[in-house]
Protein 1
Amino acid sequence: MKESVCIDWSKVIPQKISVRVDGHATSVSLEPPFLEILKDIARKKGQSLAFIITDIDSQRPQQVNLSSSLRVYALQSILTKRL
């Protein structure tokens, strides 16, 4: 029997957010759950979302997409808490 997946499909549509990264205006597209996780991380660290994004941007290899880096960072933070 095929297992049913319960997904709120409205949360699959990426949102474009504008942020200043290292003094430059840029935008990233993220699905709402990833954005919520990143905002929660920023809140718990007492930092702004822009600071978190800038920090991740400064560490990522140039060939790696910023939005992808943010998704993986968010996912890793969730997985680390579960282990």
Note: The beta strands are 15-21, 24-30.
Protein 2
Amino acid sequence: MKNVHTYTFGCKVNYFDTTQLEAVLENSGAVVDHARQKSPDTIVVNTCTVTESADKQANQLIRKLKKEHPQAQIVVTGCYTQQKDHQLASMQEIDVIVDMKDQLQMPSKIGWAKARTSLTLPIVTTHRTRANVKIQDGCQAYCTYCILPYVRGKSRSIQMDHIIKQVASFVEEGHQEIIVTGTHIAGYGRDFTERKRLSDLLYAIYQTFPKLWIRVSSLEPVGVTPDFIKAVKQIPTIRPHFHIPLQSGCDKILKAMNRKYKTKHYQERIKKLHATNDAVSIGTDVIVGFPGETKDDFEETFSFIQNLPLSYLHVFPYSSRPGTKSASFEETVSPEEKKERVQRLLALSKKKKMHFLSGFDQKNTTVIVEKKRTEDGYLKGVSPHWISVRFKGDDRLMAKEIEVNLASMAFDTKDDPYFVGRVL
């Protein structure tokens, strides 16, 4: 019986893909050693390629793993393998590269004798506290800075009945919350003969599992539609936390990015989403230093974000990605200027986050316990609004939903705020 270790880079979709791979390998008789306690016969690395840094991190890990486990078969898959000019084929440490389209046939692709292959999506299990449910893959938005459409292909939605079966499996395992995820979930169901919408799926999940908490992962602004807003209002189990990428608060830069909306449209949708719940948490992504972004353009972005009801920002300096359209654009912002702009937006993010969190001070909330006690005796979890909470308690509370009072605010070693809670 082969012992397998898995490693994953990147987004929630990649993590779900890994759980799917693990199910395929286990169906072929392997044991997936999540704790990595025994020496592996095979190591599977599921890669990301959203940035060149992600490629380098994968290369470094692969070399490290081969050095630590020279006898193990190293198998590499994921988005990095789909790059036309990837360097993986020249790496002596790698034994097999498995194309993403062949992941369900991985046992036979890596030469396992008498391996059973899968032609259909398996129902997977997960050892994580909350379960990621992949509802689609691929994207054809073709933002000029993004490599994903080229490596993951066009949007392909998973049939609703399979998703419901997958959710049922997670509920049977005892999961109290799922995260609906995909590469571009706003496009869910548009490729079906009888077109569906994301809201249709959310209603179906709620009607089948009325006590299951539903968290929606990153959703493009185009997905914040009237029917989605209506679903958020009508489905009480949808968590009040949403991540709606903006990328720039300047229409000129949005056009250069091929984002297909203007700032006024984003603002309208965020305000409508915010109106569904006064305490709703809404976060966003911002790229600074995109080719052509002037100081005035950045100030426009800063002012726009400042006036939005957002609770946090994820800020990234623009980095040219070979294979994308913007790779041919002339860089106009220096690394020093990018860094300064990042720092200004991060400071704004902290201010917004502190303002948002202050509204929960001394309030009671529920928390799903995610991490066992640390050396100081605290358990860790997150609230419905994605607020980090630490509190004293027994490890037997792990994976349970409990009620706590948010007694005081503190800061971790990275200066990120969290609440110290008291179990009620």
Note: The two ends are 46 Å apart (CA to CA).
Protein 3
Amino acid sequence: MNFIMQKKLFIQSKTDNSKNESGIRLNKYLSDSGICSRREADRLIADGKVYVNGKKAEMGMRITSNDKVECNGKIASLEEDMVLLAFNKPAGIECTTDRSNPDNIIDYIKYPKKIFYVGRLDKNSTGLILMTNDGDLANKIAKAVNCHEKEYFVRVNKKITDDFLAKMANGVPILDTVTRKCSIKKTDDYTFNIILTQGLNRQIRRMCEALSYKVLDLHRIRVMNIRIGNLKTGNYRNINKTELDELLKNI
């Protein structure tokens, strides 16, 4: 049985969307509807792909119960039931809500409700991705994982040395910064587990490349307290109440 948490949304009606303080902001409305995250909503609005009552939307607009919101030609409506899934992403699937991309994660999962991903894994990486229809929850998790743990299993192309482990643990210069100190443990000559508390773009791959290693396999096994466990590749499961309660305490 799916674990569902009820959420209540109160929307006041008003006709002047651009200036009045009632209703909710358009980017929040889109994220709450399950279309995308707030950040992606801002991009879609800026790109002219969002319409309110038949007119091109403007950044900062507020939406009321009387308004009709369209995004990429689809009607956006608020969901009443919160969904939070753990998904084991296969290699080749992309973390994008762009349905024109044949490898998009949304069409792969085929979940009966509108959902979107929280955080990313690159196309060649596998493992745990959280999926939800709750924009506020997604934003809170996304902010929290920049200071809470994410754990990965990694395979590289050559033997792992003590020098490599020490440099990875103490921070590697990439992307005009030095990565935070992290926990890393060698599991055999070519594999290691690593726990990060930040989320730079392709961070582990870039760290390894900076030390003349190439990542062959990268698999995320944990986000905060949520573990992938025995979940088969390509499958998803509902986050249970115990997991959700612990997660909410930390975001």
Note: The helical segments are 26-32, 38-46, 105-109, 135-144, 162-170, 203-210, 241-249.
